[in-house]
Design brief:
This protein has about 500 residues and is of the alpha+beta class. It has 16 helices and 17 strands. The protein has three domains: about 260 residues, no CATH class; about 45 residues, no CATH class; about 60 residues, no CATH class. The C terminus is likely disordered. InterPro entries: Portal_protein_SPP1_Gp6-like.
Length: about 500
């Protein structure tokens, strides 16, 4: 193909690219900070400069990570089972379920839900697989590398950008309803802002002196530039957490970070106190501060200098001069630190609706009903989070049907019903007892199997196994009313009791 040229349409695409890239970089600091806290990469906050000066190196890298369980607790209960395209259907669409599994969306969506709750948003990109036209390629994108732009009047997706870089080059792929634009440019040094507002070298995100420099980029399989978008819609979907009717979704761990810092600081003070309490304290009274001799190049003493205070502190020595005396040196009450930590964790549990036994780990002879009651807040919270991402998952299914060439199914998916696994964990005996009561009320076995937690393929397999068992048990067929089998005692001696015969005739009265 001919060398791609930057015409007016391409320059307009670059303008959209730069607008989305600027917004993405504004979010980058908060996004990476939240994900770092989820991973447990915390910077220890010190209560005083003195503590930082003496002990910063000793506690470098320490963290007691409570952000992870707060975000993971609801995410681990968000399990997509499929989508019903019509209210009259009883099963999820088989073809879309197959494509979902083939694209490894079970793992991808699970990771995306964690990122959505921790970082406030995540993204999903759906595109055709050149090796399989019946199985879309689905990738789940990080919120510091992807962004979706919306039409301000309609709220419809108007463009999407994926932005990433390596050591030498920055790459960008812009998705619009009509085209896919691929660009690249040399990667400038990382820079930050000085007090005066000028760019200076630093550890901030990649920045450029101007929005220029983007050049057309051809992929290894591309034979045209830009690439036509046969889907007719932006193929990237945003999964966003709760908002307050604005464009600023809330992270589930934003309120946890401050308490997390306080807990880590308390741990640092506790371990520091343990360090001092574990060794005997040596006290020298009635003597001058020791001095270190100063030697010349020949080893001859030419003077003296006092020992530095830092050395005395590190050696656990308190040197008292003059007639000073000390009567008692009691050990610190280390229990006060652990009490503060436990109280802070209890506050986290209450504020985030995370069951206390998820954080504290103390469960003593609690009944199944008590554990269920303790998880009520988490179950409600998980249901809310499912509502927030439900429309995004429907749109992902719609894009998958679009790639598979089924426009009718793509339209139906936008208003379909996403099937989710049960968000409430119960004891097995408790759950089975409840399901048995529902079965006795007349609920069908297929619905019972779904409520038990089986995924759609397993439900279908269980039903087939059930049918095979019934075919081997004539009595079960009769009791369950199989067509063609009489359930009334009308058979005469010597006749087949399961044969269909004439209705009995009553003679007289």
């Amino acid at each position: 193909m001919a060398e791609p040229q930057m015409d007016d349409e391409a320059r307009d695409a670059v303008k959209v690219l730069n607008r989305l890239a600027d917004e993405l970089r504004l979010r980058e600091t908060d996004t990476r900070r939240r994900l770092d806290y989820y991973r447990g990469v915390h910077k220890l906050c010190y209560a005083s400069p003195e503590f930082r000066d003496y002990f910063a190196d000793r506690f470098a890298g320490f963290s007691d990570n409570w952000c992870a369980p707060v975000a993971a607790a609801p995410a681990e209960r968000m399990n997509v089972l499929g989508i019903r395209l019509d209210s009259t259907e009883t099963k999820p669409d088989e073809e879309l379920s197959r494509a979902w599994r083939a694209a490894d969306c079970e793992r991808g969506s699970s990771e995306a839900f964690v990122v959505t709750l921790a970082a406030a948003r995540s993204y999903c990109l759906v595109w055709a697989d050149p090796t399989d036209d019946q199985t879309p390629r689905v990738t789940w994108e990080r919120p510091d590398q992807a962004i979706v732009g919306y039409d301000t009047d309609t709220g419809v997706r108007s463009a999407a950008l994926k932005l990433w870089s390596d050591d030498t080059t920055e790459y960008a792929t812009l998705y619009t309803p009509d085209w896919v634009w691929k660009f690249s440019r040399p990667r400038y040094a990382r820079t930050g802002y000085s007090v005066s507002g000028l760019y200076v070298p630093g550890d901030g995100p990649v920045r450029h002196a101007s929005p220029e420099g983007w050049q057309p980029r051809l992929g290894s399989r591309d034979d045209t530039w830009p690439i036509p978008n046969p889907m007719g819609v932006v193929p990237m979907v945003e999964l966003r957490n709760q908002t307050l009717l604005d464009d600023n979704p809330i992270s589930d761990i934003d309120g946890v970070i401050a308490m997390q810092d306080a807990i880590n600081l308390t741990w640092a003070y506790l371990m520091n106190s343990l360090d001092f309490a574990s060794l005997p304290q040596r006290v020298v009274m009635g003597a001058d501060v020791p001095k270190i001799p100063i030697l010349n190049s020949d080893g001859v003493k030419v003077g003296e200098r006092p020992i530095e205070l830092d050395t005395l502190v590190k050696e656990r020595i308190l040197w008292l001069t003059g007639d000073a005396k000390i009567g008692n040196w009691p050990a610190a009450d280390l229990g006060a630190y652990s009490n503060v930590i436990e109280r802070a964790i209890e506050h986290l549990a209450a504020q985030t609706r995370t069951p206390p036994h998820y954080l504290i780990g103390k469960v003593a002879n609690l009944s199944a009903e008590a554990l269920t009651a303790a998880e009520t807040g988490l179950v409600s919270k998980t249901g809310e989070r499912i509502v927030y991402v439900n429309s995004g998952i429907r749109e992902v299914y719609s894009l998958m049907a679009n790639v598979m060439g089924d426009d009718g199914k793509a339209r139906a998916a936008r208003s379909g019903t996403v099937m989710w696994g049960d968000v409430q964990f119960r004891a097995l005996a408790q759950k089975v007892d409840a399901l048995m009561k529902l079965k006795s009320m007349g609920f069908p076995l297929e619905w019972i199997a779904e409520q038990y937690g089986l995924e759609p393929p397993e439900v279908a397999r269980v039903l087939r196994m059930r049918e095979a068992e019934m075919e081997m048990d004539p009595m079960a067929l009769m009791l369950n009313g199989k067509p063609g089998v009489s359930t009334s005692p009308t058979a005469q001696p010597g006749e087949d009791p399961f044969a269909v015969g004439p209705e009995p005739v009553t003679v007289g009265g």
